[in-house]
Design a protein that fits this description.
With 315 residues, the protein is an all-beta fold. Helices cover 2% and strands 62% of the residues. The protein has a 14-stranded antiparallel β-barrel with strand order 1-2-3-4-5-6-7-8-9-10-11-12-13-14.
Length: 315
């Protein structure tokens, strides 16, 4: 049932660019040695999935959704030529009245980047443990290399990512596997050096190598997103952040399960968010996400609506 599928998070629109936030690219004061991030959210989910990272089959259940995410950051190196951040994070998702669908993810990461004259190489290494209904479920390890070039006008940035993710289930070993991804991302900044006002275009291609062929697949995923900050570049009271994005992924599976055809999937996701800053450390807003999956296998289609409100603190 393709429970081993690993969803990509390349768009700023799906709640924010996690890698950028982890590296301290939000509204935090990057001159500080330590940083903190926290977010609480509450809303509605029309088709609860256990964990976005694993992208399993939908439950068909709807209900209230609430979450908490916390992150601590240590800027070990923070000079013009090199940066190294160590991150610890935790995220909890709960649902009512479906308490058995709750999930917990916790782990750590190291994010580093060197600055050179033409290309800035980077490295990310992370480890996460996943719990479903308070029971251990899976481990996700990741390593990624990046090359970033920023043009002289400081209005265009191109990044190439080479990414490997190792997914290991505690019990469903056939669905465990390794995801190999290559992503190209282009940022067009409306103002020099201001990443809060930009258009982002991504194209990703990859292969998920599962333990058995019916769980393995090739994929291609283009995406586009728009981010715009109304107000000063550094957020303060009365500043608004708006995010809008769309992503499409097509998958071709390498084998067929017994009695079924070889599967093909198309997955669409469209999202929007608007946040208002109450001060330089606190913001609140609303979000919405619509996702759909189309498959040539009967019973594998689904659609999902997520809407809600959130409160975010950054220091």
């Amino acid at each position: 049932a393709q429970a081993g599928s690993v969803a990509r998070d390349t768009s700023v629109a799906s709640g924010g660019n996690r890698a950028a936030v982890a590296a301290g690219a939000g509204n935090a004061d990057k001159s500080r040695e330590f940083g903190l991030f926290g977010q609480v959210a509450y809303g509605y989910d029309s088709n609860i999935l256990r964990e976005d990272t694993l992208n399993p089959d939908p439950s068909g259940k709807e209900g209230q959704a609430y979450s908490f995410e916390g992150r601590g950051l240590w800027r070990v190196l923070r000079n013009e030529d090199a940066r190294l951040n160590l991150i610890a994070d935790v995220k909890f998702n709960g649902y009512e009245p479906h308490a058995d669908a709750r999930t917990l993810r916790f782990g750590g990461a190291a994010v580093g980047q060197l600055h050179t004259e033409y290309v800035d190489p980077g490295l990310l290494v992370s480890y996460n443990r996943l719990l479903f209904d308070d029971r251990g479920a899976a481990t996700l390890s990741r390593g990624a290399l990046s090359l970033t070039h920023i043009d002289e006008s400081r209005r265009h940035a191109d990044t190439l990512f080479l990414d490997v993710q190792l997914l290991r289930y505690d019990n469903f070993h056939d669905q465990s596997g390794d995801l190999y991804d290559t992503t190209f991302r282009h940022w067009h900044l409306f103002e020099p050096n201001n990443s809060h006002k930009r258009i982002e275009v991504t194209v990703t291609g990859g292969y998920f190598d599962a333990q058995i062929r019916p769980e393995s697949y090739w994929s291609v995923s283009p995406g586009i997103a728009f981010a715009y900050r109304f107000g000063a570049q550094r957020a303060d009271e009365g500043t608004y952040d708006f995010n809008l994005g769309m992503q499409w992924e097509t998958r071709a599976y390498s084998g067929a399960a017994a009695g079924q055809s070889q599967e093909r999937q198309d997955i669409w996701a469209t999202s929007a968010a608007l946040d208002r800053w109450f001060c330089r450390y606190l913001s609140g807003g609303v979000y919405g996400l619509l996702s759909e999956r189309f498959s040539n296998i009967v019973g594998r289609d689904y659609d999902r609506i997520q809407v809600g409100a959130r409160l975010t603190a950054t220091w």
